[in-house]
Amino acid sequence: MLIPFGGSSVTGARGYEECGRELLTQAPDISTVVVALGSGGTMAGLVGALGAERVLGVHCGAVPDPAGTVAALVSGLSATHQAPEALRVRLDQVGDGYAALTEPVMAALTLTARTEGLVLDPVYTGRAMAGLAAAVEDGDIRPGRRTVFLHSGGLPGLFGHQAALTRAEAALTADD
């Protein structure tokens, strides 16, 4: 069976459906899983296992209709209709477009690296972390509720993103 790049098919989403079941086994009281929403497969699988209310997808600008894309994949997983409006999707981290580096994303990359030792990429996981910070700030995610940030990879994206490398180098030089 062929899984397309990005896992953007019902078959690809099934892997993240299994991931969602594993998360429930480890943390049954999970309130929110925050994930980058690129082509939709990761979020769809998690929604399939956890339900729409527990998954917060942060749109990265990869598809024109992120909620519709995820809803179609979720419907393919369960053969029941998933209304796009029932999904928790943040649209506020795209900025000027898919590959554009924004100030909130740069702040999330820097803070996460410095405080947690996690390296995020500027297009997907960096946007997801910026979305998590914004969700805490606006009260969508509340203190005391179990929240999981799903780091789905993307490290090569950091080293291939010239604006992020230039900003990181300037930050390192400023710290010296």
From TrEMBL:
SUPFAM superfamilies: Tryptophan synthase beta subunit-like PLP-dependent enzymes (SSF53686). It comes from the Bacteria. Transmembrane segments: none annotated. Keywords: Pyridoxal phosphate. Residues 8-153 form the Tryptophan synthase beta chain-like PALP domain. Its cofactor is pyridoxal 5'-phosphate. Signal peptide: none annotated. Pfam families: PALP (PF00291). InterPro entries: ACCD_DCysDesulf (IPR027278), TrpB-like_PALP (IPR001926), TrpB-like_PALP_sf (IPR036052). Belongs to the ACC deaminase/D-cysteine desulfhydrase family. This is Pyridoxal-phosphate dependent enzyme. It comes from Streptomyces machairae.
